């Protein structure tokens, strides 16, 4: 079930903030009324594709912050594992230098509530409870507005890294919609023509603002 148009599931969980400090109770609710949030799930610490995405978000962090957007990452690892990875140099496969929060979802409840968990518990023929699939999260990305409502979501399979510039485009499109009341067509980027939705549902192109 898609979360678009619905309130983002709330949670309180441990996290590492500022790349060095463990906090026991982190919540996206702290940003409601203050900032929009890009909340992204990645499969696992100390892997290969994940650090490329995590560093890519860090490289674009200033661009998100200029737009009033907080970036928050989450995986099913523990907060201690997050911290160990953050303390490992980039040239050794670590993510040293990352400053945005990384949430620990070791119970897998956050991934379950957001629909990103790559497996589930089921009983086998012997009546034994087994986990089917991978006990990690798919690469889910959620754009959450200031009211805590999900406005965009994508979920990639484990091998497929995401495009961070596309997340910035989504933010820009949402800001354009809010500011001008127009809708954004395919491949829209900041500075390009938007569209005006008429009462009968037919849209017409307008000049750039």
TrEMBL record:
Question: Taking the first listed entry, what is the main subcellular location of this protein, grouped into a coarse class?
Answer: cytoplasm
Family (UniProt): Belongs to the peroxiredoxin family. AhpC/Prx1 subfamily.
PROSITE patterns in UniProt: THIOREDOXIN_2 (PS51352)
Pfam families per UniProt: 1-cysPrx_C, AhpC-TSA
Where would you find this protein in the cell? Cytoplasm
* Native organism taxonomy: Bacteria, Pseudomonadati, Bacteroidota, Cytophagia, Cytophagales
The record's GO molecular-function terms, alphabetically, read: thioredoxin peroxidase activity
GO biological process entries = cell redox homeostasis; cellular response to stress; hydrogen peroxide catabolic process; response to oxidative stress
Q: Which residues form the signal peptide?
A: none
Q: This protein is called what?
A: Thioredoxin peroxidase
Q: Which domain of life is it from?
A: Bacteria
Q: Which GO terms describe its cellular component?
A: cytosol
């Amino acid at each position: 079930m898609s979360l678009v148009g619905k309130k983002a599931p709330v949670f309180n969980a441990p996290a590492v903030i500022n790349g060095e400090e463990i906090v026991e109770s982190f919540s996206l609710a702290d940003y409601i009324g203050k900032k929009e949030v890009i909340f992204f799930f990645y499969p696992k610490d100390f892997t290969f594709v994940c650090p490329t995405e995590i560093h890519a978000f860090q490289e674009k962090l200033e661009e998100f912050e200029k737009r009033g957007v907080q970036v928050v990452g989450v995986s099913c690892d523990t907060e201690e594992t997050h911290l160990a990875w953050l303390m490992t140099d980039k040239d050794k496969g670590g993510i040293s230098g990352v400053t945005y929060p990384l949430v620990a979802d070791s119970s897998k409840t956050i991934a379950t509530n957001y629909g990103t968990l790559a497996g589930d518990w089921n009983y086998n023929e012997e009546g034994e409870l087994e986990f089917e699939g991978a006990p990690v999260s798919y690469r889910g990305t959620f754009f959450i507005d200031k009211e805590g409502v999900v406005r965009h979501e994508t979920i990639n399979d484990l091998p497929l890294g995401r495009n961070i510039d596309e997340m910035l485009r989504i933010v820009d499109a949402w800001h354009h919609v809010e500011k001008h009341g127009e809708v954004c067509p395919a491949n829209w980027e900041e500075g390009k023509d938007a569209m005006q939705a008429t009462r009968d549902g037919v849209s017409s192109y307008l000049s750039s603002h």
